[in-house]
UniProtKB/TrEMBL annotation:
Name of the protein this chain belongs to: Peptidyl-prolyl cis-trans isomerase
Family assignment from sequence similarity: Belongs to the cyclophilin-type PPIase family.
Residue ranges crossing the lipid bilayer per the database entry: none
Record function comment: PPIases accelerate the folding of proteins. It catalyzes the cis-trans isomerization of proline imidic peptide bonds in oligopeptides.
Originating species: Vibrio algivorus
Lineage, broadest ranks: Bacteria, Pseudomonadati, Pseudomonadota, Gammaproteobacteria, Vibrionales
Domain PPIase cyclophilin-type: 25-179
Length: 180
């Protein structure tokens, strides 16, 4: 009986504290993000609200800059901005850095303005990290599967569309999002 209880306790421990992952299906392929709840709890909770309410589905990667990043989650197929929950506090001082394949929150010049838009770093972008001189951009996860799909986004031709720059000519839509 003790062995069974111990086994169940170990199973519970291993699964209850595992980092959640989110799989994105897009029109050019799939990728998975492992979230870091320990170091970015506010940001992960915020991100999962949009995942769980289904509002990332039908949005597009609207800003893609080769060698820099791919940004999405905020605009629908007609480039209308999706509604957002309240902005969150910037967690860029959490020790996570904007390295290749990491995922961070997009924001305005106000450090505490992140809502639903996120970006995936295509390269190491140290200048986006928190420092004495910069509020930084909060990293909250990393692409663990399908980074080749994200890299392919960075190779797509882009254009200006109204006030928006670096918009893929052929839109890249998020078609499904699943918590794993």
């Amino acid at each position: 009986m003790k062995k069974i209880l111990f086994g169940l306790l170990m199973l519970f421990s291993a699964t209850s504290f595992a980092a959640p992952s989110v799989e994105f299906e897009t029109t050019i392929g799939n990728f998975t993000i492992e979230l870091n709840q320990k170091q970015a709890p506010i940001t992960v909770e915020n991100f999962l609200k949009y995942v769980n309410d289904g509002s990332y589905v039908g949005t597009q990667f609207h800003r893609v800059i080769p060698g820099f990043m791919a940004q999405g989650g905020g605009f629908d197929k007609d480039m209308n901005e999706r509604s957002s929950y309240a902005p969150i506090r910037n967690e860029a001082s959490n020790g996570l850095e904007n390295l290749t394949a990491t995922v961070a929150m997009a924001r305005t010049n106000n450090p505490n303005s992140a809502t639903r838009q996120f970006f995936i770093n295509l390269n190491d972008n140290d200048f986006l990290n928190f420092s004495r001189n910069s509020a930084g951009y909060a990293v909250f996860g990393k692409v663990t599967e399908g980074f080749d799909v994200v890299r392919a986004m960075g190779q797509k031709p882009t254009r200006s569309l109204g006030m928006m720059k670096d918009v893929p000519i052929t839109p890249i839509f998020i078609t499904k999002v699943t918590v794993k």
